[in-house]
Amino acid sequence: MAGIFGLQGFQGAVIGRRIYYAPYNDWIVGLRKSVGVETIYQTEALRQVHRCLKKGEIVGLLPDQDIDKARGIFVDFFGKPAYTLTAPVKFAMACGSPMLPAFMIRRPGNRYQLVLGDVIRPSAAGGNRDEAVKKYTEIWMRSFEKIIRAYPEQWGWMHNRWRTTPEMIKSSQREAVRT
Which residues, at least 6 apart from 131, have a Cβ–Cβ distance to it below 8 Å? Predict the structure, then answer.
């Protein structure tokens, strides 16, 4: 999907994890680069994402992952609490950038349709920042739920979206306090 935006002349990058098999990683990164899309590795994301957004570029990421090593909160996702990254909302708030949920829908005849969700404009103006982060993270996840409900057969995700539980987070926080 990032390639579509790159081929249309939009500058930007995707956030991803370095693939352990170097030749495959190099191939994927080269493929993205050939259509004008940079790769930002998760371990390098903070400064690079901020720089891209401040320049008005697009930054893409997969939001339906449970990444317990990054800061997040629990929001409802299909009726269950799902640990969800807050960094995208915080970046959008800090840079004044909108968030645009985007989806590729497979169509008959080996064709695809780009479907764009409603633009989300996170802001904490006149309110509590933590409450605003939670509110916009919930809105963001609901937009993904909506598309997945419409096309459930296309959500071919092997990742355990609900792996991290509130009890796990509380336990790791208690452990951090002890050390």
Answer: 124
